[in-house]
Request: fold
Amino acid sequence: MAGPGADMKDLEKRMDGALAALKSEFSGLRSGRASASLVEHIQVDAYGSNMPVNQVGTVNVPEPRMISIQVWDKALVSAVDRAIRDAGIGVNPVVDGVNVRVPIPPLTEERRKELSKVAHKYAEQARVAIRNVRREGMDQIKKTDGVGEDEQKRQSEQVQKLTDTMVKKVDDALAAKEAEIMQV
Reply:
């Protein structure tokens, strides 16, 4: 928006950022099937520093319940194995030469409910972030001098409409992730 008041493009960009962060968090949540995103950001102690798995090897998903990591340096195979075991994602990797295979066991009903609660927590964090951006936008509108009451009301309605749209996207993403988690 060119005039005084809230910068709608900036608000939308920041709200989109919260939505993107939510989707990133969701990709790390384990569902019933294998996904490279489950392991690729796990930190491995390599060459004296921490590096993500996807920077020390190639991550593939050859089967629906198997993740395969082809480690480029044979000396790092045990470090990758240890990092995956210590990541707390409930899997036991199997070392096979320079390959680390990660079988994904089916989720128990209890674990599915736990993951669903975690997904709800992530969604609520995204909603809070979106509402904080909304509040900042409303504050910008109130602090603007030289703008009539009608214009302030119109801008406030625009910000609220944008907020409602983004919260709906969060709710849709949560519903999709819950369906994926609960799928047997």
